[in-house]
Each structure stands twice: as C-alpha cells, then as structure tokens.
C-alpha cells in the first residue's frame, strides 16, 4: 500500500494496522491496511480485504452509537479510508468486559479477584457473564506493551482527571451496552472490547475503531449456555483464532521466536473469517472493492476539499 502525500499534510504515523495522516491542525486521514498483527508483531503477509472490513465495520458502529457520545468520524471516502477530527488522545484504553475470558480469566484462574481495580466475584467459570460489565483500563503506550492500571492510579498519575474518568467510564459502559444490543440482533454476544477517547478543547470524543474483530471478541449466542454447562469451548468470532494458530506453531511474540509461514490457503481462510464477521455483525453482504492507490488518493483529496481542508 502506498504512502500518500496529501495536500496540507502535516504529519504521518504508521501503526501496526493503520496509516494515519495529519491534515492541517484539525483533521486526520486514517487508512486501514490489510496488515494483521498479533502479540504486538505484524505478520509477514497481508490479508485481502481486511482493511476494508475493519474500516466499514468501524464506520457502521460509529454511526450506530453517535447518539451516545461525540465521535471523531466525519466521512468515509474510500472502502479502507476514514476522515475525521484530530483529537488529543487520552492515554488510556477503556477495556470493557462482559464475560470472564482472556486476560481476565488468566488473572482469575491464578487466584486473583481484582483486575485493574475491578472486583471479580468468586464461583465463576471461564466465559461466564460478570454480574455487570467491568472496566479494566490499560495505559495506551506510545511504544511497547500496554500496562494494566486502576482508575485510582490513572487519576493519581494524571492520565485523566476525576471528571474525565467519570465521563469516559460512563461513555464506555453505554457504548458496550449498545454494542451488545447490536450483536444480539445478529445472534452474537459482545464479550469484551476496548474504546479510546480524546479531547478537542473540553469536549471528549470517541476515537479510532469500535466493535471490530481487532478490538473486540464475540461469541455465538446459539448454544452458548449449553457449551457453558458442559464446560466446552465457546464458538467465537474474532481474530483469536489467529493467535491460537500462532501459539500452536510456537510463536507468542517472544524474543528468538520465528513467525510461522503463512500459506495461501491460510491467508484466504483468515480473509474469509473477517468477511464473515462483517456480514454477521452488520447483516449486510460484503462487497469487496479494490481501488488503485491513485483512485484512493483522488477520492480522499476530493473529500478533504468538501470539508473545507
């Protein structure tokens, strides 16, 4: 994928998955690539249409939650491109968990009952619902790994004020509730997810993607209770299957480990799973669209002109 040079571009940042262009002081162009990462490592082969899937799910979900809180998105000029407001990031990831799984389960099964200041009751099995969703924030690291943090620590260290914490935690729980409702309509359970917020002046905005397979975990609702009763693994729709494949091939992102070879068949399987999630989540048929870099550039420049940049 090309590195673009847009009119009035003032900055460029390449994340693990997204390329982010600063336009003037007010706007961002976010290009979702087909790169895929796991264990904080970018895997060697791109996944066809993954960028389009992530971008379009995020746009769908931001539109479906726009009544809850302001968000950064303004327009989607190309399948894998979004343009929106440039915010000053709040350096916290707001991780919301409805079920005891993943990092929370690993913590729980080690005998701990508090995660990031959130209490987890005794007597739960892996993947059980919490009585109420919990927030387990982590620091948004500029480099390296994010770290767990409690609300009290986040306030004490100045990452957020008390008032900001109250606002973003209220937003995060409301967004999670809406995400659960949207998922339930499609026969899915939103298990856990993360939200990122930023500020323009004194106003807090929801940033980045939401409710995508890169930021969220989903279970299939059909048969969930039966699988829990039998102690069986839950059927899930997320990129966890990629992590599981890597672990099975002795890779967890640790020093000295080598990323296993990705066959054409495996790459196409991953692509198909991402497309399945788009269709399952939105109820819409996926329409794969391949634009040339020149077409993507022209559409984006036109959209920037329309918003007065």
Description:
The protein has 309 residues and is of the alpha+beta class. It folds into two domains: 138 residues, Phosphorylase Kinase, domain 1 (2-Layer Sandwich), CATH 3.30.200.20; 150 residues, D-amino Acid Aminotransferase, Chain A, domain 1, CATH 3.30.470. The longest helix is centred in the middle third of the chain and has 24 residues. The two termini are 24 Å apart.
**Whole-number total of structural domains:** 2
Overall helicity: 25-40%
Largest beta-sheet details: 7 strands, antiparallel
What is the typical, i.e. mean, pLDDT?
A: 94
Uncertain residue ranges: none
Q: Report the radius of gyration as a whole number of Å.
A: 19 Å
Molecular shape: globular
Number of helices: 8
> What fold name goes in the CATH topology slot of the largest domain?
D-amino Acid Aminotransferase, Chain A, domain 1
Q: Into which percentage range does the β-strand content fall?
A: 25-35%
Could you tell me how far the N terminus lies from the C terminus, measured between alpha carbons in angstroms?
A: 24 Å
Strands, count: 16
Named at the architecture level, the CATH assignment of the largest domain is: 2-Layer Sandwich
The first-level CATH class of the largest domain is given as: Alpha Beta
Secondary structure category: alpha+beta
The CATH superfamily label of the largest domain reads ATP-grasp fold, B domain
Which keywords apply here?
309 residues; alpha+beta; D-amino Acid Aminotransferase, Chain A, domain 1; 2 domains; seven-stranded antiparallel sheet; five-stranded antiparallel sheet; globular
């Amino acid at each position: 994928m090309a590195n673009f040079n847009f009119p009035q571009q003032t900055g460029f940042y390449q994340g693990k998955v997204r390329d982010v262009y600063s336009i003037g002081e007010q706007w961002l162009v976010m290009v979702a690539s087909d790169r895929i990462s796991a264990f904080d490592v970018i895997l060697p082969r791109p996944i066809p249409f993954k960028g389009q899937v992530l971008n379009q799910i995020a746009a769908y979900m931001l539109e479906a939650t726009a009544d809850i809180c302001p968000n950064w998105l303004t327009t989607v000029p190309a399948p894998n491109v979004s343009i929106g407001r440039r915010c000053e990031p709040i350096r916290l990831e707001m991780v919301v968990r409805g079920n005891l799984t993943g990092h929370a389960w690993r913590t729980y099964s080690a005998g701990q009952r508090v995660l990031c200041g959130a209490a987890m009751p005794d007597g739960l099995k892996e993947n059980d619902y919490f009585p109420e969703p919990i927030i387990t924030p982590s620091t948004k690291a500029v480099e390296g790994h994010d770290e767990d943090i409690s609300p009290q620590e986040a306030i004490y260290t100045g990452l957020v004020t008390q008032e900001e914490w109250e606002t973003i935690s209220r937003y995060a729980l409301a967004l999670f509730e809406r995400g659960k409702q949207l998922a339930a309509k499609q026969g899915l359970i939103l298990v856990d997810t993360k939200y990122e917020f930023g500020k323009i002046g004194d106003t807090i905005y929801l940033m980045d993607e939401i409710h995508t397979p890169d930021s969220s975990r989903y279970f299939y609702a059909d048969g969930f209770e039966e699988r829990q009763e039998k102690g069986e693994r839950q059927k899930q729709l997320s990129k966890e299957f990629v992590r599981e494949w890597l672990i099975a091939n002795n890779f967890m992102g640790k020093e000295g480990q080598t990323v296993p070879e990705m066959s054409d068949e495996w790459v196409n399987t991953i692509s198909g799973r991402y497309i399945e999630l788009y269709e399952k989540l939105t109820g819409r048929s996926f329409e794969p669209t391949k634009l040339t870099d020149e077409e993507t550039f022209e559409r984006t420049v036109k959209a920037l002109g329309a918003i007065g940049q």
